[in-house]
Amino acid sequence: MAETIYSAKLNVDIVIKQIKEEIKGEKYMDIIKSYKDLCKEIKIWELRVETYEAEIRAIKKLARLYGPGDVKGIDYTKPRVQESNQIGFEEALFRLHQLEEHISMHQSTIDEMEELKKEMEERIGRLDGLDKKVVYMREIQGKPLKEIADELGYSEIYIKKISARNPKEYT
Q1: What is the pLDDT of residues 86-117, one digit of tens each?
Q2: Which ranges of the chain does DSSP label H, i.e. alpha helix?
């Protein structure tokens, strides 16, 4: 499991390096695509963290780290004690430690990606030209064309024409 996470971390490092190179090259639509890919990647890593946290809760429950459950009674008619789903204390501690390490590594990666996302937003926001502004507001900010037209002081029809020149290739 640790090797899988390590290789995933390496893949993210490669993606981050590529995105930084695209930002320097000012390939605008590539930056937009990279930005959207980065946002998707952040969501995936956040979902992984949520999954690990759910697994921690399940292990705590299985190990009865929250304390014993209600005693329902003893059935003396059965020849032996029924098996339990409870896991051992040592195993639970070991698994909890592993999961906490994974969460920590994932969180640091998410933080790196969030910093890069902010840097990309600032860089894209500074680009000039009406086409770039329209694409930025449509793709990054998610604004409808009418709102973009009102904000920039142009007619909605003109903004639609500009938007059509710059198709949503990457959505």
Answers
A1: 677 888 889 999 999 999 999 999 999 999 88
A2: 2-25, 28-62, 89-126, 130-135, 145-152, 156-165
